[in-house]
Amino acid sequence: MEGSVRLSFVSASCNKTPRAAAWGSRVLAYGSASHVCVRDPVDPVDNGVRCVLSGHADRVNAVAMISSQGRDVAIISGSADSTVRIWLATENPFEWTAVSTPLPHGSSITAVAVLNAADGDGHVEVAAASGDAAVTIWRVSLSDGAATKLQTISLGTKPALCLAFTRLPCGGRLLAVGGVDRHVRLYAAAAGEAYAAACVLPGHMDWVSAAQFATMDDGRIMLATGSQDRAIRLWVVGERDAEQGEEAADSLLTKMYACYSIIDKLLLFHFLCFLGVFYCV
Asked: Are 145 and 88 in contact (CB under 8 A)?
């Protein structure tokens, strides 16, 4: 009696790092050992691992997804091998092409973040934090994955654990960096210019391990940060008015905008530390 064997389901565990998974428009990408696995969790027939992206030499610590016009176009992965890799989509959502040259960094990658392309621009900015207390920012083409290093921000001796990007209404860009120094540091840049330190947001009592921006319906830019102090803090970035003073400042953010804590939105009394925060707007 002859029998047949058919592959029904493929599973792979996710690495135990809080930034090792990312949702796109359709697929979920996550680090599994030194690989990146891609699956479609909402497919009722085949929601297992559909493809495995190999290229890193050590554990994948961070993954980010780039989507454009409802389509997933690139995956960014950062690894303990001190490199960031770019994977470009093909017509098949479960086939991805690796850009041949990985982006080198000085130490193990701890977090990655993506600033999506502005209208009419086929490039994104990718920030990668590494264990040598540096944040490196790259400009990446979505057509061929070519990357140009824009700058490296030194954090002294305290590595970053989380990164978040947003755009300001005035055309500038804003990068939030949270790490083991318990602070949230904001870096701002005008169009075509490098990022500069804008301000430091104190308040957390332990490592800052999660951050995410969101733009509200009324145009306000909100920043949520989570910490190992078991608290989430909400911050708002708003236009500076005359009553807030004209203190001297060299950065775009502190000249044009003020960032301040909404104290009554401090969310406390969670049982364990936070590893991620996400908006649903």
From this structure: yes
Chain centroid offset of residue 26 CA? 18
The pair of three-digit structure tokens given for residue 35, joined into one six-digit string = 């690989």
Q: Cα–Cα distance between 152 and 165 in angstroms, integer? A: 16
User: Per residue of the chain (281 residues), what is the pLDDT tens digit?
Assistant: 577 887 777 889 999 988 899 988 889 999 999 999 999 888 877 778 989 999 999 999 999 999 888 888 999 999 999 999 999 999 888 889 998 789 999 999 999 999 987 766 788 999 999 999 999 999 999 888 899 999 999 999 999 999 999 998 878 899 999 999 999 999 998 888 899 998 888 888 889 999 999 888 887 888 989 888 888 888 888 765 545 444 444 455 555 566 655 544 555 555 555 555 555 54
Q: Are 132 and 159 in contact (CB under 8 A)?
A: yes
Measured distance between the N- and C-terminal CA atoms of the chain, rounded to whole angstroms: 58
| Residue 130 · residue 159 · CB < 8 Å | yes
Whole-prediction pTM: 0.86
Pairing outcome for strands 184-189 and 173-179: antiparallel
Q: What is the CB-side half-sphere exposure of residue 227 using CA atoms within 13 A?
A: 26
Name the amino acid, one letter, at 182: R
Q: Are 83 and 105 contacting, i.e. CB atoms less than 8 angstroms apart? A: yes
Check residue 93 and give left, alpha or beta (phi > 0: left; psi -120 to 50: alpha).
Answer: alpha
Distances (CA, A) of 9 to 6, 50, 59, 72: 9, 9, 24, 23
Burial class (CB in 10 A: 0-12, 13-18, 19+), 252: buried
- The span from the CA of 253 to the CA of 168, in Å, is 9
Cα–Cα distance for residue pair 160/113, rounded to 1 Å: 12
